[in-house]
Each structure stands twice: as C-alpha cells, then as structure tokens.
Amino acid sequence: MRNAPQVHTVSTSAQASHTVGAGVIWALGAVFFWSQSTACLKIILQSTSWITLAFWATTFAAVCYFLLVLVTGRMAQLRAMPAKELLTVAGIGISGCFIYTCFNYAAFACGPAAEVLIVNYLWPVATVGFASLLSRERPGIREICGLLLAVLGVICVVTRGHFQMPGALLADCLALSGALFYGLFSAASKRVSGDRILILFITYASSSILFLFTALFTHSQLRVEHTTTWLLLGYQGLCLGAVPTLFWLKALQAQSTSRAAIIVYLTPALGLVWLKILLPSEQITPAAIGGFLLIAGGFLLQLARRPTASPHAVSSE
User: Fold this and answer.
1) What is the DSSP letter of 308?
2) Buried b / exposed e across 75-102, counting CB within 10 Å, b at 16+?
3) Which of 13, 70, 154, 232 has a CA that sits 20 to 30 A from residue 122's CA?
C-alpha cells in the first residue's frame, strides 16, 4: 500500500516528461518551417509585388483553415459566434496579421533580408514589455536591462556595426514597426479566449479580404503569370504560414509558453542559414550576428524576470 502513491507519482512524472518532449518537437517543427520564410519571401518578391504576395499567402492560409474548420466539425460553432465576438476576433486578428504583414513584407521588399529578419525578431522582447504594461505592472531592473540590451542589438544591426545613420532606413523602420505591432498583438491576445482554429480562420480570412481591397485601391496586379511563383506562393501560405502556426499551437498546449518562446529564437538563426544557401548574394555581416545575439540575450534576460509574459500568440510568419 505504501508503494502505490510512489508508482502514481512516477507515472505522472513520465507522462509530463513525454508531453514536454512532444511540445519541443512541435516547436522545432514550427521553427523549421518559419526559418525558410525569409528566403522564400525574397525569391517571390523578385517576380511580384509584396501586396500580391501578401494577398495570395493569406488567402491560401485562409482556405487551409476553412477546410480544417469543415473537417473538424467547427462550422456550427463558427455560425453560432455572436456578431460582437466575431468582430472582436477579426479586429485583433487583423492587427496581428494584416498590419504586421504589411510592415514585414514591405520591409523585405525594400531592404536587406538578413537585416530585416533580425530586426523583426525584436517582437518577443516587445511582447514581454507590452504584457507588463497591459497588466499595469512596473517593469523590473532585469526587464529594463533586457529591453536596453535588445535595443542595442537593433542599433548594431541597422547601423551594421558602425553606429551611424542606417543604410536601409525605410526597411529598418518598417521592420521595427512590425515587430512592435506584433509584440502588442501577442500581449493583447493572451487576454482573448476561444477556439484557436476558428480564430486563425477569421484572422487569415479577414486579412485576405483587406489585402484584396488594398490591391484594388493601389491598382496592384493580383495576377501571377509564372508557375514557379504560384508554387512558391502556395508554399509560403500553407507550409510557411498555416502549418507551422498549427505546430506552434500544439507546442504551446504541450509545454510552458516560456520554454516554447525560447525555442522561437532558433528561427532567425536558421533563417540566416537558409538565406545564405538559397540566396548567396545576400550579405550576412558579423554586426548582424552580434546584434541578433544581443536581442536574444535581452529577451532571455526579460524572461528570467517574468516567464509568464512570454509570447503566447499565434504567429503570422
């Protein structure tokens, strides 16, 4: 009789360990696909505009999630959503997908890929800061030092180690704005409850509609002529958008958010490798690598202070 509680404890511990291990695998799967996004974006942008890219990428992702809603029997739940809740989810999703994508894709269209990639990964740092502000908690010394370290990393990247006026100022500003906006979205989304599959469908569908109107307003051509570009657009929307997002959600369900968020910082590191393999002409400077390490270090320093404030939102990489 005395051994029964011990056996139960061991079983529970083994189950928890298995769950965490599965969470790490899901997170690594998301990182593997997300890391390819930068190189894929730059290749697509050689033959089409960023608005066309954004429209088709979000449309492919929306169709993917719509099919998932149908297959999993969530259509009745979607129809039963009150109009107020639907608009709230759409508004939050638009802020984190449509606006972020506008900043991010436009930055890649006019700036060095490696530089934009690294500046964009200020968003986990921004998430911790905004989460602190939204919860009305005074930032601690570690949080402030972490933020300053990350800012120093951004300065190192955009000035390419010379600490002078950035050479790609517009792209850097767009990437920084996108990072800050996605950080705010990530922090705010922690307060929203609901079925994540439905939220993702509404997010991508509403963003796709807005990109359609944006294209019509700016007279951008949505027609894609090359078969290779079509394949890359589908790959970007499905394999680099919808699929890793699902992996990320499973990772968050299986382990702590802070543990999963640390794994996220493998994305830009692998992204630089993919970039160098697929686009050898893209320069990766020592200053960019040093700046990335500073940004990652700033995030880890913040996380040591407040692990519950780490990113929990779905990503729109």
Assistant:
1) G
2) eeebeebeeeeeeebbebbbbbbbbbbb
3) 232
200 to 6, 20, 29, 196, 243: CA distances (angstroms): 42, 24, 19, 6, 11
CA Rg value for the chain: 20
> Measured between alpha carbons, how far is 107 from 123 in angstroms, rounded to an integer?
15
pLDDT at 171 over 70: yes
Residue 307 has pLDDT above 70, yes or no: no
What tokens appear for 180 in the block? 């800050």
Contact status, residue 52 vs residue 224, Cβ threshold 8 Å? yes
Of 253, 255, 238, nearest to 195 by C-alpha is 253
Report how far residue 292's alpha carbon sits from residue 161's, in angstroms, rounded to the nearest whole number: 12
Q: Which two tokens stand for residue 281?
A: 């002409």
The CA distance from 125 to 297, in Å, is: 10
Long-range contacts of 195-199 (CB under 8 A, 24+ apart): 195/74, 195/77, 196/249, 196/314, 197/65, 197/68, 197/69, 197/72, 197/74, 198/69, 198/74, 198/77, 198/78, 198/81, 198/89, 199/89, 199/93, 199/314
Nearest Cα neighbor of 42 from 117, 138, 143 is 117
pLDDT tens-digit readout, 205-244: 999 999 999 999 998 888 888 888 899 999 998 888 888 8
Contact 19, 254 (CB under 8 A): yes
What is the spatial distance between Cα 285 and Cα 311, in angstroms, rounded to a whole number? 28
Q: In whole angstroms, how far apart are CA 186 and each of 13, 130, 172, 224? A: 31, 9, 21, 33
Cα separation, 91 vs 83, in Å, equals 12
Query: Of 266, 213, 241, which Cα lies nearest the Cα of 316?
Result: 241
**Helix/strand/coil for 83:** helix
pTM reported for the whole predicted model: 0.79
Angstrom distance (rounded) from CA 77 to CA 99: 27
Mean pLDDT computed over every residue of the chain: 80
